[in-house]
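Thread: quick sanity check before group meeting

JM: Hey all, I'm pulling together slides for Thursday and realized we never actually wrote out the predicted structure for the chain we discussed last week. Dropping the sequence here so it's in one place. If anyone has concerns about the input, flag it before I start.
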Amino acid sequence: MKRYITKIVLALTVLSVCIYSCKQLDDTRPFDKFDETAVWSSKSNAMLFVNGVYSSVLGLYTNTVEDEVRTSNIIQSDGNAFTRESITRDDDYGFNQFSKIRSCNLIIEKANASAALAEGDKVELVAHGKFLRAMTYYWLARRFGRVIWVDKVLTENETNYALPQTTNIAETYNLIMKDIDDAIAGLPASSPAGIATKASAYALKSEAALQAAAYTGDNTYYQKAIEAANAVIATGKPLEADYEGMFNEKARFSPEILLATYRDKSNTVVSNIADMQEAIPNVNNDDLKLRNATPLFKLDKVFEDWGKYSPTQNIIDEYLVIDAADPSKAVKWDQSSQFLKNVTKKQSPFLDSAVVTGSGSINAIIYNNRDKRLAASIVYDSTAWYGELVTTNRNGNLNRMIKGSLNSGCCTQITNAYFRKGIYNVSPRPFYNTPVDYHWVIFRMGRVYLNKAEALLMQNKIAEAVTTLNITRQGHGGLPPSTATTAEAAWKDYKRERRVELFKEKDYYWSLLRWGKYGGNANGGAAPGAKIAELLEKPTFMEINATRKGYRIEVINFQLNDQRMFDETRRYLLPIQNSQIVRHGAMTQNPNW
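JM (edit): ok, ran it. Output follows.
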């Protein structure tokens, strides 16, 4: 690791929302550098530097599709090394986060050493540094287990590159938890948007404790997760009534959000946001006319982006429907009384195929009375999007084959569904250079409730766990409550609830690994550390026919996307890039890499 002593550089980039109100240090100085004395002479000056570190560290938790494409929730058009088990120890999966760690250590050391800062300001600044260091190391721990823990600012005279790894994963999480606890003690109860509070740190603890328990076998972490979650719940922060708006411009500062990172349209355009640029398709009226698709767009070229990622039918299937014959029950859409009464399954070469033999269109039968989060998260056939009627049935204007064929990488998506969650409404259209506000939600109340429910399940407190998971199921989903009474049934409902509640929030892949480590009911009855069935699940899409009187469901085999592999002997951790091991010397590679 290179050691540098530099003047503190205040890179006031990327912080798109001015999330901390403070005056300029000196309008006559260059705006990229300030001497240390000036920076640490007051809390407002120091927060300029701290804000920059928040932007850097929280950036690890943005661009939400990155992790979830490793699962069957989201598919990408150019394939995925994870699903094919083609990742290697020569690949870079982010082990080198030392510049971020150094910045965190600078906050801690410089604030502590400042003679100008008031004692209370020192305490808060150090807490920010420790929170950010914990966030960085938690990001690393989920991937690599053992880390190189650096808790001081290294100098240019320190030439020993052979810094030790933590002795085991338990030590990694012990150090992370200590930083979190220290941060909780010093962070304020409220902060400007984008800056951590006590509740943010408790939220981190409630989740990191679950991961620690799974990877260390230390069951005491479950109670720590519950106590941390209870501390957040005690703040009285509500669930957001507008679930969709919490992820776009309508409720971007929702009280449910405990921590997010924000960008402002003054320096952000659509092409800066992978979640938009790579999720919105590239289709125009010429494409529609060529293939007699309907309806034409009122605004031609309203969709002119890259269209690289798509939600799958697999995730759509997880959103339950309220049964018409018994509204106290929520069931899978093809198990409802309204479906069984009006639709007949057919024998076919596809995974599933059916026709309407009763009344109504297939859309009305399968989409009415669904979990409210489906329409808030996914654009499907005959729904409005950017002021247009989007149709994805066989002759629809955003059917997956509207370009005549599927293209690798760009620019048509490969399912008949699109993202609504996390997509901002911009005018006149989401073109690459259209200015856009944006934010990524990192922690929120819904996530905390689910962390608590999981810890309760692991303590075999089934009734209390079900009551807790029902908070989001009913509050955000609008569904009747789960009535599960056995551990097996409760885990089934919990896993589905977490999957849909936190869809596209960088959670599902890491939760699957955690549940695989637990084993038992958390992983379909398998032994701890066994294969994970969900990571072997082939991604699918639905095609509704032109008359909307039938559908078929197929496996997506484009670009080998139907290849799903998971080597349980090594995939619970990622490989440390071999060049990092060579550089640092006193390190060992993760098992079987």
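AS: nice. Residues 1-32 have pLDDT under 50 and may be disordered. The first helix runs from residue 36 to 39.
JM: adding both to the slides.
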